[in-house]
Structure formats: structure tokens, C-alpha cells
């Protein structure tokens, strides 16, 4: 797809983003020919007559160009509708947009979006099961943020993880440890350059975490996340 065609399509983003075929085009621009989203016949179509392209750029360079083109318009759209998408696990496009943030050539382009993301994660909400807590601990949201931290670790970066760590450390520890957000902390522990962002503060709280683990056991609540966190401290 030419950059001109793609930019023309993006002009109608607000009107077409709910269309699954339109979403598929944007997902392909972000992740390429992924077996996760496309059928074998789709993947075959992607490569049809690829050898006839006039571009002399390497495939990975071309993919990065397409990704960078779609990321900013998606950034603007999702910043305006973030609260609706953060707790919705059904949007593959939003998920891939989030996981591509560490891959974007100029991360400063997404500074406003990241600021809004951090603000939304700190909000309190009532979840579908009737429980209340920080949005970061929502059943769907915590998985997305955990995967985002992993994506940064895989990309050997820490821009978003560093800002998120500041948010986590300024919240009450119970808000994090007693929610699914504990799994985000565990993701930090897996990468040495991210672990140092949170390990010192939580190591100092090790005795409190052990007490919390004990109380969870007494209440017959799952302690798996706390156990893994304690092992990594």
C-alpha cells in the first residue's frame, strides 16, 4: 500500500474505525502479516507480486514507515476515547496500537496520549463483578498494561514503564497488591533494567506483603501473584 493511499484512508478514521475490514488494514500496517489476525489466504494475498514493488527499502524499514503513519492518528483518536477502550479486551486494533508504542520511531509524538493513559489508570471504577478499585487493576486493563511493559522490555526501552512506575509507587501499596495490578509488578521483575524501577521500594515492604499473603490464604483468596512477587524480590 502506498503512503498516499494510507493517509487518504486515515482521513476517515473516526467514521470507519468500527468497520472490521478497515481495522484489519490498520492492524496489518502495525504488525504486518501476522498469523494471529489473518487467514492463510490473506497472508498469501499480502505477498502477491511483492517482487514487483518499486520500493528499494528493506521489508522491516517499510513496515516501520507504515506503522509510524498510522500511529499518530490512532493516538489522537484513542486519547479522546481512552476510558472506553482501556476496559474493553475486544479491540484488537487498540491492543496492537498500545503494544506498538515502544516501537514508534519518535516516542515524544505520543507524550499526550501516555499522560492521559497514566491519568486514566489511576481512576477508581466499579468493575463488572461489582468490585471497586483502580482502573489499572481491571481484569482486562491489567493484562494490556502487563503486555505493554513486556513489549518495552523486549524492545530494551523503559519510557512508559518508568512513568508508570512513578504512578504505582505513589499509590497505596494495597491498591496495587490486592488487585490484579500485582501481575504488572511481576512483569517489571522479569527485566533487569525495569526491575530496578520498583524493586527497592517493594523489597522494603516485603514483610507487609508476607502478611497480606497470609491474610489472603486465611480468606481462601488466590495468593499466586503475591507468591511470585515475593520470590522475585
Structural notes for this entry:
The chain folds into 2 domains: 1-69, no CATH class; 81-200. It is built from 16 helices and 2 strands. The chain has helices at residues 3-10, 13-16, 20-31, 40-47, 59-80, 82-86, 92-100, 111-121, 141-154, 159-170, 173-177, 182-189, 192-195, 199-203, 206-218, 224-232, and strands at 124-126, 132-134. A two-stranded antiparallel sheet has the order 1-2. α3 (20-31) packs parallel to α7 (92-100) and α9 runs parallel beside α12 (182-189). The longest helix is centred in the N-terminal third of the chain and has 22 residues, at 59-80.
Q: Nutshell version of this structure?
A:
By secondary structure, the protein is mostly helical. The chain has 16 helices and two strands.
- What is the CA–CA distance across the termini? 48 Å
Report the total helices. Answer: 16
Q: What profile does the largest beta sheet have? A: 2 strands, antiparallel
The radius of gyration over CA amounts to 20 Å
- What level of helicity do the residues show? 55-70%
Lateral strand order in the biggest sheet: 1-2
> How many separate domains make up the residues?
2
Briefly note the structural class of the backbone.
mainly alpha
* Strand portion: under 5%
Low-confidence stretches: none
Q: What is the global morphology? A: elongated
Number of strands: 2
Average of the residue pLDDT scores = 88
SSE string, helices as H and strands as E? HHHHHHHHEEHHHHHHHH
Question: Descriptors for this entry?
Answer:
2 strands; mainly alpha; 3% strand; 233 residues; 2 domains; two-stranded antiparallel ribbon
Amino acid at each position: 500500500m502506498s503512503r498516499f493511499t494510507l493517509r487518504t484512508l486515515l482521513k476517515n478514521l473516526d467514521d470507519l474505525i468500527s468497520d472490521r475490514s478497515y481495522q484489519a488494514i490498520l492492524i496489518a500496517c502495525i504488525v504486518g502479516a501476522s498469523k494471529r489476525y489473518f487467514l492463510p489466504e490473506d497472508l498469501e494475498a499480502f505477498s502477491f507480486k511483492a517482487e514487483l514493488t518499486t520500493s528499494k527499502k528493506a521489508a522491516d524499514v517499510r513496515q516501520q514507515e507504515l506503522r509510524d503513519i498510522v500511529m499518530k492518528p490512532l493516538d489522537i483518536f484513542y486519547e479522546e476515547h481512552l476510558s472506553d477502550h482501556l476496559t474493553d479486551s475486544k479491540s484488537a486494533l487498540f491492543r496492537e496500537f498500545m503494544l506498538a508504542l515502544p516501537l514508534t520511531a519518535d516516542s515524544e509524538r505520543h507524550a499526550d496520549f501516555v499522560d492521559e493513559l497514566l491519568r486514566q489508570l489511576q481512576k477508581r471504577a466499579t468493575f463488572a463483578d461489582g468490585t471497586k478499585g483502580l482502573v489499572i487493576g481491571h481484569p482486562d486493563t491489567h493484562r494490556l498494561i502487563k503486555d505493554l511493559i513486556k513489549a518495552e522490555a523486549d524492545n530494551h526501552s523503559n519510557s512508559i514503564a518508568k512513568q508508570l512506575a512513578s504512578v504505582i509507587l505513589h499509590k497505596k501499596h494495597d491498591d496495587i497488591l490486592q488487585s490484579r495490578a500485582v501481575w504488572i509488578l511481576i512483569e517489571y521483575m522479569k527485566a533487569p533494567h525495569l526491575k530496578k524501577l520498583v524493586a527497592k521500594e517493594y523489597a522494603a515492604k516485603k514483610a507487609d506483603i508476607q502478611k497480606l499473603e497470609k491474610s489472603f490464604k486465611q480468606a481462601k483468596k488466590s495468593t499466586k501473584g503475591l507468591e511470585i512477587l515475593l520470590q522475585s524480590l
